[in-house]
Design brief:
Blueprint lengths: L9 E5 L5 E4 L1 H9 L11 H13 L3 E9 L2 E12 L2 E13 L7 H5 L5 E6 L4 E4 L3 H5 L3 H4 L8 E3 L14 E8 L5 E10 L5 E10 L19 H26 L8 H30 L9 E4 H11 L1 H7 L2 E3 L8 E4 L1 H18 L5 E9 L2 E7 L31 H11 L3 E6 L5 E8 L2
């Protein structure tokens, strides 16, 4: 479609059902090329959304939109004005823009000798796999489509938000095929949409030949996160996430006036999601520190019973909201140990918080202390669904969760907690069985 020119204003009148009563040729042609017929509702979706919004609010609404049209896009300025059951539409701007073309396509990787190709959308769900990928490599490629990227790959090292915040998110990254545990290397590039936003990833998979028996076992893990990565992630995400959470909390609290309860609930969900992402950023920054080869913690005299009391107290509001009682050491209880007060508090907040998350309403979390020879021991027990023996080693690994579909958590808390415990000369373990709850044991030396 030839653009009518930026200064040209095309007009139309729509009835109460969004059907065109009259329209200038440019608007009528857009409607037809979008698949609309004379008796159909306005078929140009971006313009139709503005029309519906104006009708619902009962006021004139003006917006800039981008409309896809054959081989090009059109930037338009649209105004919709309600008038006695009709909508008077004015469309101006009419600026041509080259249609979006992906910066990277699967063909870009085909010549590099990849074993198979894949694509994922902005939510990191698989949208394309090479047709023969599954039969050649031991998984059902059709069943994988629409599932998260981590359903197919277990990435070595950190993953998550960094995959869509770097121009080369996967450049030879080590990984394993989850269905077969085969080692692979991944390469990918970010795909951008027509507005310059992130539309997902397009990438390639290269299988790594298994080593000979005399060459050792599995390939070494990726290097720890770098200072520049975590510092950049912190700067890039913390401020906008904090702003999102603050605004969502303000909306949920109806600070600027009454709103429908559904919208308040949506705002609460947004705030919870924002806090979850801030927690992930915190954990990734923490991860950078604890994975340094020289990471150590000073061992100073602390009262581990006092630390346990404080941790339980800090989570009192969350426990009340969850309807779960927390039994903690009494004021007279004392348990001398050698460790770092702040890090010990961090570990116990993580353990008690997890216990609250998995405890049923009306249940109880028991926090107890004991002096066992040269060890000072804190146990955090819940009456949740428990953890199968085969899953217990996994929960202390990075980005591993027994059930990824459950809300909350990012698979880093227990990994960090155990690393911190061992950096203080102690340890962290679990005893559990399905249906019988779980007991986490945090121990530090007494001398």
């Amino acid at each position: 479609m030839d653009s009518p020119g930026e200064s040209m204003v095309a007009r139309a009148i729509l009835d109460s059902s969004d059907r065109i009563l009259s329209a200038d040729p440019p608007i009528e042609l857009l409607h037809i090329r979008a698949g609309g017929a004379a008796e159909d509702r306005l078929a140009v979706a971006p313009i139709a959304r503005i029309v519906r919004l104006a009708r619902r609010l009962g006021i004139a609404v003006s917006r800039k939109v981008c409309v896809a049209d054959e081989e090009g896009d059109l930037d338009l300025w649209v105004q919709a004005r309600p008038e006695t059951g009709q909508i008077r539409l004015s469309v101006s701007g009419w600026r041509d823009r080259a249609a979006w073309r992906p910066r990277a396509t699967p063909r870009d990787y085909a010549a590099a000798g990849a074993d198979f190709l894949w694509e994922a959308d902005a939510a990191l769900r698989l949208t394309f796999l090479s047709p023969d990928a599954g039969c050649r490599h031991g998984f059902d490629a059709t069943a994988m489509l629409g599932r998260p990227l981590n359903a197919l790959f277990v990435l070595d090292g950190a993953s998550g938000p960094g995959l869509l915040s770097d121009s080369t998110p996967l450049d030879g990254r080590g990984a394993r095929l989850r269905p077969t545990d085969a080692p692979v290397r991944l390469s990918a590039a970010i795909r951008h949409d027509g507005m310059g936003g992130i539309a997902g990833l397009v990438g390639a998979t290269y299988l790594i030949d298994p080593p000979d028996e005399d060459e050792g076992a599995r390939p070494s893990r990726a290097a720890p996160l770098t200072d520049s990565f975590t510092a950049g992630l912190d700067r890039a995400l913390r401020t906008p996430l904090a702003r999102i959470v603050a605004n969502a909390d303000s909306i949920a609290a109806r600070a600027d006036g009454p709103i429908a309860s559904d919208y308040a609930e949506y705002a609460t969900d947004i705030a919870h999601a924002g806090r979850h992402l801030i927690g992930l950023v915190d954990n990734l920054v923490e991860l950078q520190a604890i994975e340094q080869p020289d990471f150590t913690l000073a061992a100073t005299p602390i009262d581990l019973a006092d630390v346990a009391r404080r941790a339980a107290g800090l989570l009192g509001v969350r426990a009340d909201a969850a309807g779960v009682a927390v039994s903690r050491p009494g004021p007279a209880d004392s348990l001398p140990a050698l460790g770092d007060f702040g890090r010990s508090l961090q570990i116990l907040i993580n353990l008690i918080g997890n216990a609250l998350r998995y405890s049923p309403r009306g249940g109880e979390v028991l926090v107890s202390v004991a002096d066992e020879e040269e060890w000072a021991v804190v146990r955090v027990a819940d009456h949740g669904k428990g953890i199968a023996p085969e899953d217990q080693p996994r929960i202390f690994e990075k980005f591993e969760r027994v059930d990824p579909t459950e809300p909350g958590g990012n698979g880093l808390g227990l990994y960090i907690a155990r690393r911190l415990a061992r950096a203080m000369g102690g340890d962290l373990g679990v005893e559990s069985a399905p249906g019988e709850g779980a007991t986490f044991t945090f121990r530090l030396r007494t001398r």
